[in-house]
Amino acid sequence: MIASLMPTYNRADLAFERGEGVWLYGADQRRYLDFGAGIATSSLGHGHPHLVAAISEQAARVMHVSNLYRIPQAERLAQRLVDASFADSVFFCNSGAEANEGMVKLMRRAMHATGQPERTRMICFSGAFHGRTLAMLSATGNEKYLQGFGAPVDGFDHVPINNLNALRDAITPQTAGIIIEPIQGEGGVRSADARFLRDLRTACDEFGLLLGFDEVQCGMGRTGRLFAHEWAGVRPDVVSSAKGIGGGFPLGAILATEAVARHLTAGSHGTTFGGSPLACAAGNAVLDVVLAPGFLDQVVHTGSVLREALEALVAAHPEAFCGVRGLGLMQGLQCVLPNSALQAACMQEGLLVVAAGENVLRLVPPLVVTPEECLDAVRRLAAAAARVRQSEPALSA
Fold first, then answer.
1. Cβ(257)–Cβ(267) below 8 Å
2. Which residues pair with 158 in a beta bridge?
3. Residue 375: CA atoms inside 13 Å, Cβ hemisphere, count?
4. How confident is the model at residue 393 (pLDDT cuts 50, 70, 90)?
């Protein structure tokens, strides 16, 4: 008999009762060092006093009114994001998939409004992950995710990441824009080269295309800048954001320049829950912390400590690990042993991590993690590797 909760996830037999900082406390009375952060979402960790207070206070006043009326909390959050980024205007939604859908709609709409209605196709990249809606499954292009859902939605062409020749060859008179994750999370924490991102901007300017960055996972301070593309010095036309933007409360956003954003006129796009007073109170609380002086510098420092420790782990245990990828507090540990077995062993060692493509373990702790907690996590990784090696005969049996 099917469970009342649809079995769309292979869930670990573990439930949490409370959290504090980077620690989660399970119903099994154990505590776990959380280096998954709800898949890079709990940016301020668990039970952060400022975030909890902002949500509680707003919930006691008004949670939802709809976008038929002004929402001062959304207006404030949008202005703060504009002031801190390339963007001139922001649209709020609920999730990363919605933000990416909206980004595609916006790019197509801009082309139509500027007399180029034939330009509807998007160039995306192998190894990407843009969400679980029908269109975003097609933008992702992973056959495993598409299986059983009918023909892919038309309009998405895929090329290898960091391959400029393939990118330029894929541009046609029907191409509207390019969508890329500066760092692919689900795909294995694979980074786009900074030069490649700059070359994408050049190609877009040459062919009259729009450049969109999917920063759902790598944005909102995770790499030590508010958005990861800033490291390459590239100015996009559109950016999607979600996950860490609400610190665990559902919130997504599309940020865009005025030249693009002005084409989403009244009635052309919408959302029931997006940009609610409660969600934007959470978003403002997150920005209070992330944009505070010195906070992103601390993320850079802590990320460098984590990276150095992971590289030492790889050098000490080449039978288990073979490399490190990523930036800031978005690190990928390339594995020799099966990442699924290592993920399970980490849990036994009181460490929560997330598996990713290309046999990688994703380490995306809350941004408030300390260097000492990073070193603790690496020690637990070493113990997990030893645990898996001890069980190797059973794994191959």
1. no
2. 124
3. 4
4. low
What does the DSSP assignment read for 229-288?
GGGGT---SEEEE-GGGGBTB--EEEEE-HHHHTTS-TTSS--SSTT-HHHHHHHHHHHH
In the chain, the N- to C-terminal Cα span, in Å, equals 30
* Residue 212, both tokens: 């969109």
Residue type, 245: I
Tell the residue number behind the tokens 């196709």, with chain if given: 121
Question: How much of the chain is helix, strand and coil, in % rounded to 5?
Answer: 40, 20, 40
Half-sphere exposure of 177 (CA within 13 A, CB side): 25
CA 137 to chain centroid: 16
d(C-alpha 242, C-alpha 228), whole Å: 14
Cα–Cα distance list, 268 to 91, 92, 110, 272 (Å): 12, 14, 12, 14
SS3 call for 20: strand
pLDDT at residue number 397: 42
Q: What is the pLDDT of residues 108-156, one digit of tens each?
A: 999 999 999 999 999 999 999 999 999 999 999 998 889 999 999 999 9
Query: What CA–CA distance (Å, rounded) separates 202 from 194?
Result: 13
Is residue 209 within 8 Å of 179, Cβ to Cβ?
no
DSSP letter string over 42-107? -TT-BS-HHHHHHHHHHHHH-S---TTS--HHHHHHHHHHHHTSS-SEEEEESSHHHHHHHHHHHH
Of 24, 43, 97, nearest in space to 271 by CA: 97
Instruction: Read off the pLDDT of residues 279-310 as tens digits, 9 standing for 90 and up.
Output: 999 999 999 999 999 999 999 999 999 999 99
pLDDT band for position 392 (50/70/90)? confident
Q: Is residue 129 helix, strand or coil?
A: coil
Residue 156 has φ and ψ, to the nearest 5°, of -125, 125
Pairing of strands 175-180, 121-125: parallel
Tens digits of residue pLDDT in 35-61: 999 999 999 999 999 999 999 999 999
Between CA 191 and CA 201, with CA 197 as vertex, the angle to 5 degrees is 160
d(CA 171, CA 181): 18
Q: How many residues can be counted in the chain?
A: 397
Q: At what angle do helices 277-290 and 295-316 cross, to 10 degrees?
A: 70
